[in-house]
Amino acid sequence: MKFSQAKDLALISAIYFKGVIHVSLSSYFKNLFSDKKSLQKVDILLEQEGIRRDTNSDYICAMFDEDLNIIATGSCFGNTLRCLSVDHHYQGDGLLNEIVTHLIHIQFERGNTHLFLYTKPDTAKFFKDLGFYEIVRADQQIVFMENKKDGFSNYLKNLKKSDSKPQTTAALVINANPFTLGHQYLIEKASVENDLLHLFIVSEDSSLIPFSVRKQLVLEGTAHLSNVCYHETGPYIISKSTFPSYFQKDQDSIIESQARIDLAIFTQIAKYLGINKRYVGEEPTSLVTSIYNQIMLQELPKQAIDCIVIPRKTYKNGPISASTVRKALKEGNNQILKDLLPLTSLTYFLSPEAQPLIKKIRKTDNVSHY
Questions:
Q1: Which of 7, 102, 360, 361 is surrounded by the fewest CB atoms within 10 Å?
Q2: Reduced to 3 states, what is the DSSP secondary structure of residue 276?
Q3: pTM
């Protein structure tokens, strides 16, 4: 049954929310299928259209034909739209428009008004017609879009620029989960070797240590440096939860595409701020960092930006690592904390203020993440 032939029928959509499949008819909700059966149908459609389901989705909707075959689907995760697909037999009937409109409504109900999506270049025009605007594209394979016309341009305008004209301007992007002596060493080195350092702190709140704490510790741990300009990354730099793994065939491809999207955005930021160097920390045990660093070393010089990889600062037991700090916090190992944290970070984690966070860390099964 063509959707266009069923205008008199009520719209039925299957909803996957927090691990439960529902059917939605107006405001009425009930269980429809077992999770496995419904998600298998979604997977079949996505695979048929050359996409795989993103495991990060927290809301999945689908349209059915009269035989309860899924003919259109779309998902949300955070403030993004994902895994949008229509059975090729039904394309041109307006189903994708219905799916996107429904997901936007859901996002607005959640309080998410600034939305993002990734799509293929050949479908970018369709989303432009629905009110999304291109930010960047990577290798003519993926287009990153948002629903605010001036979203990224306003982010650039709000970045603090230097009143002077420094000869050397560098940049660093850190997550600092939490801020360690290794982060401090890297920032100090970049600061002393340049006239101005733009320090970007990953502000997406998906780390074990909340952004408010991470930012506080970065500011306190670098307060002795006079040439550092601080920025929040917002949704534009290293926003891992918004990356579309469903477009990629393997893990290396996912990381590489993420890096190329990030670099395309960073290049525009660098041009706006006059950045001519980017410092990165070496982390040989991390697949993500290794691939990122390789791509930066290849691509940044093409944009007249030097990429400088700094060897990790070590202590008696090996490289200083934020994951080692998180493990020490979980286990209550204060000696490790004293070895790996600057005094400002150590003081915080030993304070009463930090105890609720430490309790949360101790209840977390795995404090080491990919």
A1: 7
A2: coil
A3: 0.83
The DSSP secondary structure of 128-168, one letter per residue, reads HHTT-EEEEEETTTEEEEES-TTHHHHHHHTSPPPSS--S-
CA distance 127 to 119: 9
Beta bridge partners of 86: 72
Q: Which of 112, 106, 100 is nearest to 27 (CA)?
A: 106
* CATH, domain 3-113, list 3.90.660, 1.10.3470, 3.40.91, 3.40.630: 3.40.630
Which of 182-220 are b and which e, b meaning 16 or more Cβ less than 10 Å from the residue's Cβ?
A: bbbbbbbbbbeebebbbbbbbbbeebbbebebbbbbbeb
pLDDT band at 29 (very low <50, low <70, confident <90, very high): very low
Per domain, the residue ranges of the chain are 3-113, 116-149, 162-363
Alpha-carbon gap, residue 345 to 183, rounded angstroms: 11
Hey, which CATH number is domain 162-363, 3.40.640.10, 3.40.47.10, 3.40.50.620, 3.30.70.20? 3.40.50.620
pLDDT digits (tens, 9 = 90+) for 109-166: 999 999 999 888 888 998 999 999 999 987 777 889 999 999 999 999 999 887 778 9
Give the count of beta carbons closer than 10 Å to the beta carbon of residue 8. Answer: 5
The region that residue 40 occupies, defined by phi over 0 for left and psi between -120 and 50 for alpha, beta otherwise, is alpha
Give the integer Cα–Cα distance in Å for 171 and 280.
9
